[in-house]
User: Which sequence fits this backbone?
């Protein structure tokens, strides 16, 4: 892994189109600014991991027995 | 018509129009790209059944059933992967988690499954709005709407 030291307001450039700059540093939190074309998706790593984990859980627990929501749906039609 | 093996109902006949290609797979299940979309016996759920592995199957729900205020906001790239469908051709589902310990069932609105129904192409997108999370308690949110 390439490791670079940067200060506030300094940046790095990845390829021709992506720039990551350090906007602010407070304690153990770093604010990053990311300039990239719209087609490049930028996510916090936790988002990917959370969706992966949720999919795994969903697949593991899915069986033929599904709960009934009729009670709640019926309420809708009456109201 | 063709017959497939399903996790929930064993061998069942399906129509070819129920086959959905998910070229990137779902997150964590990238190697499973061929699915069938089935009505569950229990409404309003659906099944997304892998054709590659019978044990890989997801329960889906239409998010508007429990969150009428849900707005599908996803990156352009997600639309591109399913062939930039017209609005009428987009189906949206949330993956449902039904814990075996009896705790509340939840639906994932952070990673909605979008399907272009005319080309039968699907993808798990990522919602841009952080309001949509991986665990929305379905029953609680249905009750709260009133």
Assistant:
């Amino acid at each position: 892994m390439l490791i670079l030291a940067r200060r506030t307001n300094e940046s790095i450039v990845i390829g021709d189109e992506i720039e990551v700059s350090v906007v602010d540093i407070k304690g153990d939190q770093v604010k990053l600014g990311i300039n990239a074309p719209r087609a490049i998706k930028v996510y916090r790593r936790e988002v990917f991991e959370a969706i992966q984990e949720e999919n795994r859980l969903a697949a593991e627990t899915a069986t033929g027995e599904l709960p009934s929501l009729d009670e709640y749906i019926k309420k809708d039609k009456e109201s | 018509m063709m017959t497939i093996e399903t996790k929930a109902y064993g061998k069942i006949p399906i129509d070819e129009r129920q086959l959905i290609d998910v070229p990137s797979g779902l997150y964590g299940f990238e190697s499973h790209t061929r699915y069938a979309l089935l009505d569950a016996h229990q409404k309003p759920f659906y099944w997304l059944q892998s054709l590659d592995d019978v044990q890989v199957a997801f329960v889906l729900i239409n998010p508007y059933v429990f969150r009428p205020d849900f707005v599908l906001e996803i990156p352009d790239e997600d639309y591109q992967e399913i062939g930039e469908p017209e609005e009428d051709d987009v189906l949206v589902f949330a993956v449902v988690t039904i814990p075996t310990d009896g705790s509340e069932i939840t639906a994932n609105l952070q990673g909605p499954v979008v399907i272009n129904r005319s080309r039968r192409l699907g993808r798990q997108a990522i919602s841009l709005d952080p309001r949509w999370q991986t665990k929305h308690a379905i029953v609680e949110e249905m009750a709260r709407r009133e």
Chain B touches chain A at residues 7-9, 26-29, 40-45, 47, 55-59, 65, 75-77, 95-100, 105, 108, 110-111, 124, 126, 134-135, 138-139, 142-143, 146 (CB under 8 Å). Chain B has a mean pLDDT of 93.
